[in-house]
Structure prediction request, 334 residues.
Amino acid sequence: MNNITHLKSLQLVENNFIGQLPQKICLGRVLENFTASGNHFTGPIPKGLKNCTSLFRVRLERNQLTGDLAESFGVYPTLNYIDLSSNNFYGELSEKWGQCHMLTNLNISNNNISGAIPPQLGKAIQLQQLDLSANHLSGKIPKELDHIQRASFMTHAMKAIYKLLLSDYVKVSKVSVEDMLYDEQDILCSMDKIEVLDFHQTLEVNGIRFWCYTAGHVLGAAMFMVDIAGVRVLYTGDYSREEDRHLHAAEIPQFCPDTCIIESTYGVQLHQPRHVREKRFTDVVHSTISLGRAQELLLILEEYWSNHPELHNIPIFYASPCKRCMAVYQTSIP
Prediction:
Protein backbone atom coordinates (compact mmCIF):
# COMPACT_ATOMS: atom_id res chain seq x y z
CA MET A 1 0.00 0.00 0.00
CA ASN A 2 3.00 2.29 0.23
CA ASN A 3 3.01 3.08 -3.50
CA ILE A 4 -0.67 3.91 -3.98
CA THR A 5 -0.86 7.52 -5.08
CA HIS A 6 -4.50 7.82 -6.17
CA LEU A 7 -6.21 6.25 -3.16
CA LYS A 8 -9.25 8.26 -2.08
CA SER A 9 -11.08 5.81 0.21
CA LEU A 10 -9.92 2.89 2.35
CA GLN A 11 -12.24 0.84 4.60
CA LEU A 12 -10.73 -1.73 7.00
CA VAL A 13 -13.65 -2.08 9.41
CA GLU A 14 -14.05 -4.80 12.07
CA ASN A 15 -11.25 -7.19 11.16
CA ASN A 16 -8.35 -8.60 13.13
CA PHE A 17 -5.57 -6.61 11.51
CA ILE A 18 -2.49 -6.13 13.67
CA GLY A 19 0.68 -4.07 13.44
CA GLN A 20 1.04 -0.44 12.51
CA LEU A 21 -0.89 1.65 10.02
CA PRO A 22 0.82 2.05 6.61
CA GLN A 23 3.35 4.88 6.73
CA LYS A 24 2.65 6.21 3.21
CA ILE A 25 -1.11 5.77 3.21
CA CYS A 26 -1.64 9.30 1.90
CA LEU A 27 1.23 9.41 -0.54
CA GLY A 28 -0.80 11.10 -3.26
CA ARG A 29 -2.39 13.62 -0.85
CA VAL A 30 -5.88 12.73 -2.18
CA LEU A 31 -7.11 10.36 0.56
CA GLU A 32 -10.54 11.52 1.79
CA ASN A 33 -12.10 8.63 3.71
CA PHE A 34 -10.10 6.32 5.94
CA THR A 35 -11.73 3.81 8.31
CA ALA A 36 -9.76 1.23 10.29
CA SER A 37 -12.01 0.92 13.34
CA GLY A 38 -12.44 -2.27 15.36
CA ASN A 39 -9.03 -3.82 14.70
CA HIS A 40 -5.81 -4.34 16.68
CA PHE A 41 -3.60 -1.68 15.13
CA THR A 42 -0.83 -0.40 17.39
CA GLY A 43 1.84 2.26 17.30
CA PRO A 44 1.73 5.92 16.34
CA ILE A 45 -0.19 7.76 13.65
CA PRO A 46 1.81 7.72 10.38
CA LYS A 47 3.35 11.07 9.41
CA GLY A 48 1.73 10.67 6.03
CA LEU A 49 -1.70 10.71 7.68
CA LYS A 50 -0.80 13.64 9.92
CA ASN A 51 0.00 15.76 6.87
CA CYS A 52 -2.86 14.51 4.68
CA THR A 53 -4.85 17.74 4.28
CA SER A 54 -7.38 16.11 1.92
CA LEU A 55 -9.02 14.08 4.70
CA PHE A 56 -12.78 14.37 5.03
CA ARG A 57 -13.79 11.43 7.26
CA VAL A 58 -11.55 9.40 9.61
CA ARG A 59 -12.53 6.52 11.91
CA LEU A 60 -9.78 4.85 13.93
CA GLU A 61 -11.75 3.98 17.08
CA ARG A 62 -11.31 0.73 19.02
CA ASN A 63 -7.65 -0.03 18.32
CA GLN A 64 -4.51 0.26 20.44
CA LEU A 65 -3.03 3.26 18.69
CA THR A 66 -0.77 5.42 20.79
CA GLY A 67 1.23 8.63 20.71
CA ASP A 68 1.01 12.25 21.82
CA LEU A 69 -2.33 13.46 20.49
CA ALA A 70 -1.14 17.03 19.90
CA GLU A 71 1.82 15.78 17.86
CA SER A 72 -0.07 13.07 15.95
CA PHE A 73 -2.56 15.19 14.02
CA GLY A 74 -2.33 18.35 11.97
CA VAL A 75 -4.75 20.84 10.45
CA TYR A 76 -7.32 19.50 8.00
CA PRO A 77 -9.26 22.17 6.06
CA THR A 78 -11.95 19.76 4.78
CA LEU A 79 -12.19 17.33 7.72
CA ASN A 80 -15.82 16.74 8.69
CA TYR A 81 -15.77 13.72 11.02
CA ILE A 82 -13.07 12.04 13.10
CA ASP A 83 -13.40 9.31 15.74
CA LEU A 84 -10.28 8.38 17.74
CA SER A 85 -12.08 6.89 20.74
CA SER A 86 -10.96 3.81 22.69
CA ASN A 87 -7.25 4.00 21.92
CA ASN A 88 -4.17 4.87 23.99
CA PHE A 89 -3.48 8.45 22.91
CA TYR A 90 -2.00 10.69 25.59
CA GLY A 91 -0.91 14.29 26.00
CA GLU A 92 -3.11 17.37 25.77
CA LEU A 93 -5.73 18.55 23.31
CA SER A 94 -4.22 20.66 20.57
CA GLU A 95 -5.64 24.05 19.66
CA LYS A 96 -5.14 22.95 16.04
CA TRP A 97 -8.56 21.25 16.14
CA GLY A 98 -10.05 24.74 16.17
CA GLN A 99 -8.49 25.34 12.74
CA CYS A 100 -10.52 22.48 11.23
CA HIS A 101 -13.34 24.80 10.25
CA MET A 102 -15.45 22.13 8.53
CA LEU A 103 -15.34 19.74 11.50
CA THR A 104 -18.79 18.70 12.80
CA ASN A 105 -17.96 15.58 14.87
CA LEU A 106 -14.94 15.04 17.11
CA ASN A 107 -14.71 11.98 19.35
CA ILE A 108 -11.57 11.40 21.44
CA SER A 109 -13.27 9.61 24.34
CA ASN A 110 -11.70 6.78 26.33
CA ASN A 111 -8.05 7.69 25.90
CA ASN A 112 -5.46 9.13 28.30
CA ILE A 113 -5.79 12.81 27.41
CA SER A 114 -5.00 15.26 30.20
CA GLY A 115 -4.88 19.00 30.77
CA ALA A 116 -7.46 21.63 29.92
CA ILE A 117 -9.78 21.98 26.95
CA PRO A 118 -8.28 24.74 24.79
CA PRO A 119 -10.62 27.70 24.17
CA GLN A 120 -9.38 27.75 20.55
CA LEU A 121 -11.48 24.61 19.97
CA GLY A 122 -14.45 26.97 19.84
CA LYS A 123 -13.15 28.28 16.50
CA ALA A 124 -14.42 25.07 14.91
CA ILE A 125 -17.74 26.81 14.38
CA GLN A 126 -19.35 23.86 12.55
CA LEU A 127 -18.75 21.51 15.50
CA GLN A 128 -21.99 19.81 16.57
CA GLN A 129 -20.88 16.74 18.53
CA LEU A 130 -17.87 16.68 20.86
CA ASP A 131 -17.07 13.67 23.04
CA LEU A 132 -14.07 13.93 25.37
CA SER A 133 -15.37 11.59 28.07
CA ALA A 134 -13.30 8.97 29.93
CA ASN A 135 -10.06 10.96 29.86
CA HIS A 136 -8.16 12.92 32.52
CA LEU A 137 -9.14 16.46 31.61
CA SER A 138 -9.15 19.26 34.16
CA GLY A 139 -10.36 22.83 34.43
CA LYS A 140 -13.51 24.50 33.15
CA ILE A 141 -15.35 23.91 29.91
CA PRO A 142 -14.51 26.98 27.80
CA LYS A 143 -17.34 29.40 27.11
CA GLU A 144 -16.14 29.41 23.50
CA LEU A 145 -17.86 26.03 23.08
CA ASP A 146 -21.29 27.45 23.85
CA HIS A 147 -22.14 27.46 20.15
CA ILE A 148 -22.33 23.64 20.07
CA GLN A 149 -25.98 22.74 19.67
CA ARG A 150 -27.01 20.60 22.61
CA ALA A 151 -30.05 20.30 24.79
CA SER A 152 -31.00 19.00 28.20
CA PHE A 153 -34.45 17.57 28.75
CA MET A 154 -36.25 18.06 32.06
CA THR A 155 -39.75 18.05 33.38
CA HIS A 156 -41.30 21.48 33.99
CA ALA A 157 -40.95 21.27 37.77
CA MET A 158 -37.37 20.03 37.62
CA LYS A 159 -36.30 22.97 35.45
CA ALA A 160 -37.64 25.38 38.08
CA ILE A 161 -35.94 23.53 40.94
CA TYR A 162 -32.71 23.14 38.94
CA LYS A 163 -32.22 26.91 38.88
CA LEU A 164 -32.88 27.23 42.63
CA LEU A 165 -30.44 24.49 43.58
CA LEU A 166 -27.58 25.68 41.36
CA SER A 167 -28.07 29.30 42.43
CA ASP A 168 -27.89 28.25 46.08
CA TYR A 169 -24.57 26.50 45.36
CA VAL A 170 -23.13 29.74 43.97
CA LYS A 171 -24.33 31.72 47.00
CA VAL A 172 -23.00 29.35 49.69
CA SER A 173 -19.85 28.16 47.89
CA LYS A 174 -16.69 28.86 49.85
CA VAL A 175 -14.24 28.29 47.02
CA SER A 176 -12.63 31.14 45.11
CA VAL A 177 -14.31 32.56 42.02
CA GLU A 178 -11.58 31.03 39.84
CA ASP A 179 -12.25 27.54 41.25
CA MET A 180 -16.03 27.62 40.97
CA LEU A 181 -17.49 25.22 38.43
CA TYR A 182 -20.00 27.81 37.27
CA ASP A 183 -21.45 31.20 38.16
CA GLU A 184 -24.87 32.85 37.94
CA GLN A 185 -24.30 33.83 34.31
CA ASP A 186 -23.52 30.21 33.40
CA ILE A 187 -26.78 29.13 35.06
CA LEU A 188 -28.78 31.67 33.10
CA CYS A 189 -27.15 30.56 29.84
CA SER A 190 -27.88 26.91 30.59
CA MET A 191 -31.57 27.66 31.16
CA ASP A 192 -31.95 28.52 27.47
CA LYS A 193 -30.64 25.07 26.51
CA ILE A 194 -33.17 23.17 28.63
CA GLU A 195 -36.17 21.72 26.83
CA VAL A 196 -39.10 20.71 28.98
CA LEU A 197 -41.36 17.73 28.49
CA ASP A 198 -44.36 16.23 30.24
CA PHE A 199 -44.43 12.81 31.81
CA HIS A 200 -45.23 10.16 29.16
CA GLN A 201 -44.58 12.63 26.32
CA THR A 202 -42.49 10.97 23.59
CA LEU A 203 -39.69 12.95 21.93
CA GLU A 204 -37.27 11.95 19.20
CA VAL A 205 -33.75 13.30 18.64
CA ASN A 206 -31.52 11.98 15.86
CA GLY A 207 -33.61 8.81 15.61
CA ILE A 208 -33.54 8.15 19.38
CA ARG A 209 -36.96 8.09 21.04
CA PHE A 210 -37.44 8.74 24.76
CA TRP A 211 -40.13 9.51 27.31
CA CYS A 212 -40.25 9.68 31.09
CA TYR A 213 -42.14 8.37 34.11
CA THR A 214 -42.60 9.69 37.63
CA ALA A 215 -39.67 8.65 39.83
CA GLY A 216 -41.30 9.45 43.19
CA HIS A 217 -38.06 10.90 44.60
CA VAL A 218 -38.51 14.67 44.57
CA LEU A 219 -40.83 16.92 42.61
CA GLY A 220 -40.12 16.64 38.89
CA ALA A 221 -37.75 13.68 39.24
CA ALA A 222 -38.13 11.37 36.27
CA MET A 223 -37.14 7.93 35.03
CA PHE A 224 -36.27 8.02 31.33
CA MET A 225 -37.02 5.22 28.90
CA VAL A 226 -34.75 5.50 25.86
CA ASP A 227 -35.52 3.55 22.69
CA ILE A 228 -32.60 3.09 20.29
CA ALA A 229 -33.52 1.00 17.26
CA GLY A 230 -35.98 -1.03 19.31
CA VAL A 231 -33.62 -1.59 22.27
CA ARG A 232 -35.08 0.03 25.40
CA VAL A 233 -32.93 1.37 28.25
CA LEU A 234 -34.48 2.62 31.49
CA TYR A 235 -32.29 5.23 33.18
CA THR A 236 -33.08 6.71 36.58
CA GLY A 237 -31.49 8.32 39.60
CA ASP A 238 -33.06 7.87 43.03
CA TYR A 239 -36.63 6.60 42.92
CA SER A 240 -39.23 5.52 45.46
CA ARG A 241 -42.05 3.02 45.10
CA GLU A 242 -43.57 4.22 48.38
CA GLU A 243 -46.17 6.96 48.02
CA ASP A 244 -45.95 9.70 50.60
CA ARG A 245 -47.94 12.82 51.47
CA HIS A 246 -46.64 15.07 48.72
CA LEU A 247 -45.55 12.77 45.87
CA HIS A 248 -46.87 9.79 43.99
CA ALA A 249 -44.82 6.59 43.97
CA ALA A 250 -42.52 5.77 41.06
CA GLU A 251 -44.42 4.38 38.11
CA ILE A 252 -43.93 0.91 36.70
CA PRO A 253 -43.23 1.33 32.95
CA GLN A 254 -45.65 -0.41 30.63
CA PHE A 255 -42.68 -1.66 28.60
CA CYS A 256 -40.08 -4.02 30.01
CA PRO A 257 -36.63 -2.48 29.40
CA ASP A 258 -33.78 -4.48 27.90
CA THR A 259 -31.32 -2.68 30.17
CA CYS A 260 -31.88 -0.84 33.43
CA ILE A 261 -29.43 1.76 34.81
CA ILE A 262 -30.25 2.83 38.38
CA GLU A 263 -28.76 5.06 41.06
CA SER A 264 -27.56 2.62 43.74
CA THR A 265 -26.67 4.73 46.78
CA TYR A 266 -29.26 2.87 48.87
CA GLY A 267 -29.24 -0.30 46.81
CA VAL A 268 -28.19 -2.50 49.72
CA GLN A 269 -29.74 -0.46 52.55
CA LEU A 270 -32.68 -1.59 54.69
CA HIS A 271 -34.73 1.37 55.93
CA GLN A 272 -36.95 1.34 58.97
CA PRO A 273 -40.71 1.23 58.31
CA ARG A 274 -42.28 4.61 57.58
CA HIS A 275 -44.28 4.80 60.82
CA VAL A 276 -41.13 4.14 62.89
CA ARG A 277 -39.21 6.89 61.12
CA GLU A 278 -42.05 9.36 61.46
CA LYS A 279 -42.37 8.60 65.17
CA ARG A 280 -38.67 9.26 65.67
CA PHE A 281 -38.99 12.51 63.74
CA THR A 282 -41.95 13.84 65.67
CA ASP A 283 -40.21 13.01 68.92
CA VAL A 284 -37.14 15.03 68.02
CA VAL A 285 -37.24 17.47 65.09
CA HIS A 286 -33.87 18.01 63.46
CA SER A 287 -32.76 20.40 60.74
CA THR A 288 -33.17 19.19 57.18
CA ILE A 289 -32.51 20.16 53.59
CA SER A 290 -34.92 22.35 51.67
CA LEU A 291 -35.80 20.16 48.69
CA GLY A 292 -37.96 17.05 48.65
CA ARG A 293 -37.75 15.76 52.21
CA ALA A 294 -38.49 19.16 53.76
CA GLN A 295 -41.89 19.30 52.10
CA GLU A 296 -42.74 15.82 53.35
CA LEU A 297 -41.54 16.65 56.86
CA LEU A 298 -43.67 19.79 56.96
CA LEU A 299 -46.72 17.71 56.06
CA ILE A 300 -45.86 15.22 58.79
CA LEU A 301 -45.61 18.07 61.29
CA GLU A 302 -48.91 19.53 60.10
CA GLU A 303 -50.63 16.19 60.64
CA TYR A 304 -48.95 15.74 64.02
CA TRP A 305 -49.88 19.28 65.12
CA SER A 306 -53.52 18.75 64.11
CA ASN A 307 -53.66 15.65 66.32
CA HIS A 308 -52.14 17.44 69.31
CA PRO A 309 -54.12 20.55 70.33
CA GLU A 310 -51.55 21.44 72.96
CA LEU A 311 -49.17 22.34 70.11
CA HIS A 312 -51.55 24.59 68.18
CA ASN A 313 -50.09 27.77 69.65
CA ILE A 314 -46.53 26.77 68.67
CA PRO A 315 -45.58 27.95 65.15
CA ILE A 316 -43.46 26.01 62.67
CA PHE A 317 -40.61 27.91 61.04
CA TYR A 318 -38.72 27.05 57.86
CA ALA A 319 -35.86 28.74 56.00
CA SER A 320 -36.15 30.88 52.86
CA PRO A 321 -34.69 28.30 50.38
CA CYS A 322 -37.44 25.94 51.47
CA LYS A 323 -39.98 28.72 50.87
CA ARG A 324 -38.82 29.22 47.28
CA CYS A 325 -39.00 25.49 46.58
CA MET A 326 -42.41 25.40 48.21
CA ALA A 327 -43.68 27.83 45.59
CA VAL A 328 -42.67 25.37 42.86
CA TYR A 329 -44.50 22.57 44.67
CA GLN A 330 -47.65 24.63 45.04
CA THR A 331 -47.58 25.39 41.32
CA SER A 332 -46.86 21.83 40.16
CA ILE A 333 -48.97 19.68 42.52
CA PRO A 334 -52.76 20.03 42.31
Q: What stands out?
A: The longest helix spans residues 156-172. Confidence is low (pLDDT under 50) at residues 286-291.
